[in-house]
UniProtKB/TrEMBL annotation:
SUPFAM superfamilies: FMN-dependent nitroreductase-like (SSF55469)
Organism: Nonomuraea monospora
Domain of life: Bacteria
Protein name: Nitroreductase family protein
Organism phylogeny: Bacteria, Bacillati, Actinomycetota, Actinomycetes, Streptosporangiales
InterPro entries: Nitroreductase-like, Nitroreductase/BluB
Length: 323
């Protein structure tokens, strides 16, 4: 018979994992729970067929859920034992996680766990409050611990390049009906009861322009959706998350690094806004890799900053997620 403390830890880990970030809040994962093991599976029916044909963003999202599973188990006093891509014959099975040796959580782990449900994606400008340099160093170290590299982009010329590529990609995608329809598929209209996708109040109807301007997705395409204007127009600190390789294992590692960075940032009052448009276009992604990333593969473009935005979040119920 399964130990009650182990069962409680497994249940809590799955509950926590559903709060991981995902592209367009697609939540592209399911979980199987046996007596002493959790299986993390990709829900390929939620993949972006136009914007993410390779499944890269889907696996990054699932990697974020994997780190959340690990963190929740640690918070419940167990060191997780993880197998990544354990069965080549079952490509949708991305990882298995089981509770290992009993290990009391340290203060840093508890702090990450406390922010699993509090963390929010921001979709506008930030306040003018600065992000401390020491915190950026800590976030870079957190990403490195998970096998990725977080690089704050501080040189004005490099920031201009990132912003220009983001604007170019957004303009091309906005002019393509396929891209636009896919984005609004995951945009929730006001009053919607859906438990996935981006709520109408999660982005401003009219966003203040940052300088240089990093455009957001057009979740209100041909609709008058969106919340009140954002609280500020500060750019924050642009940053790149990169990996040495560019396969499924690296994408999962990137997702784990991303969630570790986001939870660490949230614990210090810092949020992230994502701008992955240029990374969804092969030519622009390759340009970034060679010109700004020293040959490493760019997996995420984000801005880090301080916001007092405290909007709610939606997640699918466990009954939809657990097999």
């Amino acid at each position: 018979m399964i130990d009650r403390s182990v069962k409680a830890a497994l249940d809590a880990a799955v509950e926590a994992a559903r709060w991981a970030p995902s592209v367009h809040n697609t939540q592209p994962w399911t979980f199987s729970v046996s007596e002493e093991e959790i299986g993390l599976r990709a829900d390929t029916g939620r993949k972006l067929r136009v914007g993410d044909a390779s499944g890269r963003e889907l696996l990054i999202s699932c990697g974020a859920a994997l780190f959340t599973l690990r963190t929740a188990l640690r918070c419940h006093g167990f060191e997780p034992v993880v197998r990544v891509l354990p069965d080549p014959d079952r490509p949708s099975l991305l990882a298995t996680v089981r509770p290992g040796p009993a290990t009391p959580p340290d203060e840093a782990t508890r702090l990450l766990g406390e922010h699993i449900e509090r963390r929010r994606t921001h979709r506008a400008g930030f306040t003018g409050l600065p992000v401390p340099g020491k915190l950026l160093d800590r976030l870079a170290a957190a990403a490195a611990d998970e096998g990725a590299r977080l690089t704050p982009v501080l040189a004005p010329g490099a920031v201009d390049v990132l912003a220009a590529l983001t604007r170019a990609a957004q303009a091309v995608q906005a002019a393509d009906r396929r891209w636009s329809l896919e984005v609004i598929r995951w945009a929730r209209p006001p009053g919607s009861s859906r438990k996935d996708g981006v709520p109408a109040d999660a982005y401003p109807r009219t966003a203040a322009r940052t300088e240089p301007h990093f455009p957001q997705r057009d979740y209100s395409w041909r609709h008058d959706w969106g919340g009140e204007e954002a609280e500020g127009a500060s750019l924050g600190v642009p940053a790149l998350l990169t990996t040495g390789g560019d396969g499924r294992e690296e994408w999962l590692a990137c997702g784990q690094a991303l969630q570790r960075v986001l939870l660490s940032a949230a614990a210090h009052g810092v949020s992230a806004a994502f701008h992955t448009q240029a990374l969804e276009m092969d030519l622009l992604r390759e340009f970034l890799r060679h010109e700004l990333c020293s040959g490493e593969h760019p997996q995420m473009i984000m801005r880090l900053g301080v916001t007092f935005d405290d909007k709610g979040a939606v997640r699918r119920p466990l009954t939809d997620l657990v097999e």
